[in-house]
Amino acid sequence: MKLTILGSGTTDPASGRNEPGYLLEIGRDLVLMDAGSGTKEHIFDSGYDDFRINHILISHTHADHVVDLPAFFWSRWVRKNKNDVTILGPKGISGFIKKIGEAFFPGYDDFFMFQIKVKEMHNSVYQTKNWKVKSVYTWKQGHTFSPYAVAYRIEHQGKSLVYAGDMCYDYPQSLINISQNADLLLIESALPDQRRQKDHLTPSRAAQIASEAKVKKLVLTHFYPACEKYDLKKQAQKYYPGPIILAKDLMKIKI
C-alpha cells in the first residue's frame, strides 16, 4: 500500500495546507479518504487520475472533510467516466450523499454514467477481493454539527493502516482496539499541547494512542496554523518512541 497526503491542514488557509484528504493505493484500487477543499487538484498533482478512484471513505461530514465531493462527481460526468464508486461513511452518510445529489445534480440517478453505492459503517466490516476495511465509532454525539464519526482500519496482504479524522480529546477505547499493532496510524493532531481543546487531539494525546495501541509508525496531520509555532514531533516523542512523521501536502508514504 502507498499513502499520499493530499491535504494536511484545516479550513484555515493561513497554514498553507489543503483541507484533509488522503489517497491510498492498494494494488489496482485507489481509495480516497476524506475530500476537503483542494483534494481533487492534488490528486492530479500527485500523479494520479481520479478515474481510478473506486472507493471513498468519509470519516465524518464536517465541510472541510467533504466539500470536494461535488467537484469529484462533476469531474467524472464531464470526462464521461463510467466507473462505479462506493462510498463508506458513518451513520447518516446515505442521506448526506443524497442531499449532495439533489442540490448539485437534480435527477442524478439518470444523469451520471456511473453508479454511486453508499454503505453506512456501524462498527462494521467491508470486504473487497483484495482488501478489508473495519470501522469503529470515534464519537456518537459529535462536536460542532457532525453527529457521528468513524475511524477505519484498512488491511491488505498483512499490512494495515488506521485513519482517524477529527477526534475528541477524550477518545474512546474502541480507537485503541482498532489500532492495535497497525503498521501506520494516520491521525489528527490539530492543535499543539499548549492549545488543548476538548474537540481535537494534540501531539501528546495522539502519541498516547499510538503507544497504547503499539502501532509501528505514527503520522500526525490536520494542523491548524497555531501548530507551525511549536515542535510537534518533540511533544509526541514524550509518549511514543516509534517513528513519527508530520504530514505535508503531496507527501508519499509506503506501507
UniProtKB/TrEMBL annotation:
Domain spans labelled Metallo-beta-lactamase: 18-222
Superkingdom, natural source: Bacteria
InterPro entries: Metallo-B-lactamas, RibonucZ/Hydroxyglut_hydro
GO terms, molecular function: 3'-tRNA processing endoribonuclease activity
SMART domains to which the protein is assigned, alphabetical: Lactamase_B
Protein name: Metallo-beta-lactamase domain-containing protein
Organism: Candidatus Kerfeldbacteria bacterium CG08_land_8_20_14_0_20_40_16
